Here is the input.
Amino acid sequence: MAEKKIKIGLVGIGRAGWGMHSREIEKYQDLYEVVAAMDPDAARLTEIAKRFKGCKTYQDFDKLLADKNVELVVVANRSPEHTPYALKAAQAGKYVFVEKPIALTYDDAKKLLAASKKYPGKIFCRHNRRFESAFNHIKQIIDSGLLGEVFLIKRRCHSFQRREDWQSIIDCGGGQLNNWGPHIIDQGVQFLDCKVKEVWGDLKKVEALGDAEDHVKIVLKGESGRVYDMEISGGVLFPEPVYTVYGTKGSLLLQSEGSKIQLKLLAEKQNFKHTISSRISPPITGAFGEPETVRFEERSFDVNPDWEVDIWSIYKYLFNTIRKGEKFPVKMEEAVEVVRITQVVKDMNPKFKTPDAEFVAKLDKIEKPACACAKKACAKKAPAKKAPAKKAAKK
Ligand SMILES: NC(=O)c1ccc[n+]([C@@H]2O[C@H](COP(=O)([O-])OP(=O)(O)OC[C@H]3O[C@@H](n4cnc5c(N)ncnc54)[C@H](O)[C@@H]3O)[C@@H](O)[C@H]2O)c1
Here is the structure.
């Protein structure tokens, strides 16, 4: 017998709520039904009610929580609201699917972790890029040992964007560390496949029009010694390959999303001239390393992991967890580790401080629904005198 559909209350009908979640839910309409939606913007509620017939609409989150029909609350509003909304929904006895970043601070992430222990099997994190085909295929290749001992993985998300929305403004919870960071850090932690021992990060504002960082460079080193070197940047005009992987037996390259995976491997069974280094001084006319013929094997193929996934699949896994009791592939502890790393990088770059929660709450009331962040005035629009003083470099 087919399991009952999961009844969703969708919170935040923006680019993610409307453009991603709604489309994904439509794809899995045999598994889900949107029975309610919440957004302060009445016009968006009208649109969502047209899209999902019979969907109740609310401008007040408490009213959505009081709707007994809602089983799963999807938290897809702005980033600073994720932790408080997720906690409230869990306390109300709902399942929760919380967008990334699950929290803006490590302390908040730990609150979610505590809640996930208090309400086991209720809170799930939307780290949907864990289901990216390229990520999964490349991880399979690394794990297979084909490249030998993999010592460096370089991951790039390069673009050139004069970004002007709230995602470019600190007080709105913007910045690429909170935006793309959770995805690319999460992938890195998975690639390292061991405890992260060292974190180094640099944040810069390059082209975006707000005050938040649009250039993120992070280097993670795992206990195994493997290094993950990632960049997310909106200020790059010569984008580097999205993946470059170096191992002792070969290298891997994925130039861009949608291109083929390229491998260059040391050919097996070849007789090398030398098998050991010499301590004796070479002749004064000698070369720096005596040339020898090394044979390589080159392969290239489409991205097509064994584990058939795409970034929408996360909704399928969520259904199987809630209805069939299967394990959810993204653990809360893993999402919390991502926020820990984010926090370390923020602390190294205090100029790009975490927004003050009280200030953000005020901003919410003053500006929503039609925040004019895009006009560069987000922080300025809030009457400065009424807003509480911003704390410096909040943890
Ligand atoms: N996982 C992903 O792939 C992915 C992709 C895009 C965005 N996101 C995340 O989704 C979140 C939303 O991003 P977006 O680009 O859709 O933003 P957006 O500004 O386009 O949409 C936010 C929506 O929330 C509504 N809103 C504002 N205050 C609210 C409140 N208090 N309660 C409920 N709704 C409220 C706004 O009216 C708007 O409709 C961000 O945190 C972002 O990080 C995730």
Summary: The pocket of nicotinamide-adenine-dinucleotide is lined by residues 11-17, 20, 38-41, 44, 61, 76-79, 81, 99-100, 126, 128, 166, 179, 364, 368-369 (CB under 6 Å). Confidence is low (pLDDT under 50) at residues 369-395.
